[in-house]
Amino acid sequence: MKERRGGSRHIVSFPIQVIWKDENGKDIVEEGLTENVGPNGTLIYLPRKLPAVGGKVTLTVTENPSDPISVTAEVIRLERNAAHPQAALNLVNGTRAWQKVWKLAGEVVASMQPDVPEDW
Questions:
Q1: In the chain, what percentage of residues exceed pLDDT 90?
Q2: What does pTM read for this prediction?
Q3: Cα distance between residue 79 and residue 71, in whole Å
């Protein structure tokens, strides 16, 4: 299968809030974590409910509570693993704001220290 991503991804967990409308038009609000962050989207973990594929969501990254970043994204894929449900999101608008998240993710990954092997 051909890789369709537009750039590399940073494996980092940022707290998020996702809002979408259900089939009855009611707002659903879920909190979760990013699994990885790319320049044009993200894979997120939502512990309870997942939005529908093709649906639009408002994604807010709340890593910095004084400067939350909100974007609109489309759900492009779901992983319905009961222990770890995930949704892949592609940005629809807010790409300029998202670059702050992308940059922060890169800084967090770059600052990580490798695990030191334990002696047995």
A1: 76
A2: 0.87
A3: 22
- What distance in Å separates the CA atoms of residue 90 and residue 96, rounded to the nearest whole number? 14
Beta strands in 38-102 (DSSP E): 41-45, 56-61, 69-79, 86-93
Whether the CB-CB separation of 42 and 89 falls below 8 Å is answered with yes
Top CATH class, 15-110: mainly beta
- How many residues can be counted in the chain? 120
Q: How far is CA 85 from the centre of its chain?
A: 12
Q: Are 102 and 63 in contact (CB under 8 A)?
A: no
Q: Which residues contact 26 (CB under 8 A, 6 or more apart)?
A: none
Both tokens of 2, joined, read 């051909």
Spans of all domains in the chain: 15-110
C-beta neighbour count of 76 within 10 angstroms: 13
